[in-house]
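lol so apparently i was supposed to do this last week
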Amino acid sequence: MQTSTTAPLQASEETSLSANRAATVVAVAGATGTIGQAALKRLAERGYHPVALPRDPQSLPAGCSAVISCMASRTGLAEDAWRVDHQAQSKLLSLARQQGVDQFVLLSAICVQKPHLPFQKAKLAFEAELRASGLRYCIVRPTAFFKSLAGQLKRVLAGKPFLVFGDGQLTRCKPISDEDLADYLIDCLSHADRVNQILPIGGPGPALSPLDQVHLLEGLLGHRVRIKSVPVGLLRSIAGLLSVAGWFSKAARDKAELARIGLYYATESMLVWDESAGAYSESLTPETGQQRLADFYASVIRGETRVDLGAHAVFKD
Ligand SMILES: NC(=O)c1ccc[n+]([C@@H]2O[C@H](COP(=O)([O-])OP(=O)(O)OC[C@H]3O[C@@H](n4cnc5c(N)ncnc54)[C@H](OP(=O)(O)O)[C@@H]3O)[C@@H](O)[C@H]2O)c1
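anyway here it is w/ NAP bound
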């Protein structure tokens, strides 16, 4: 599914940014984050001229043709999300307009298609600003990152059970690697048919449920993996109790919000929502890249890849 308010360019049209990569200055916001770092590295490897922006840039680099923004609140809490996912992005967009950049590529998230949480609303508010800005835009809404699932691997390798909600089949996603997502963001600079589009994107399929991930791990480890099932009702009750406590304490309010974020990911798939079917759709969720979760897990098990969970991890050890 690709949605837009403005007509895309024809696929045959070349974007001006694809002509001379070495002369194409691409500013990367959120360059210290997981995807920002991957974007910087791949831009350089692919012959572009990437520039990492500082946290609160006052201007963009001279000759800047495009911005790739991977900036995001590290907590997902309401205040932080409105400050970063909306205000800081908005300020960056103003700079981009003032300095006449050609294109703005935004890293968003697939979960904004069903916005229940404050951080999703903050992201959507900025997406709307970007769409109305008159600048060429690409809004990339990826599914789950490897790092968000890898906390489970760390738990299992430490002898702990794999945590699932309900029967482990409530949700599914098409996990995407940092490099494949970075390449997809960068390809937006040269793929004319992605301009002025909202682009949901997953890694190479099939879609995996948490139980599928357990089976995948069992295959790699050669033994059974213990599972601990957490009833969704328990998570819902915890979120409810913390919400009440939140009337009296900011710390409890924050915990309640984190519990609601956890509940969302425990019950909503990271796939395109098919409005007509009233269900998430694996077939409507586009795929990109080559790297599969199984290869990533295998490489972690062999000790070749370190798992950096970051602040967005759902399952820490
Ligand atoms: N995790 C997933 O599975 C998943 C799936 C789909 C979409 N997403 C989306 O992907 C994004 C997260 O990507 P990521 O994991 O690469 O992020 P990340 O590692 O948490 O990095 C966030 C970046 O934003 C910067 N930042 C934070 N606060 C800032 C501020 N006030 N001003 C300027 N910059 C600020 C950080 O800078 P500092 O280093 O200075 O803090 C860092 O560079 C989010 O939009 C998320 O919704 C995530």
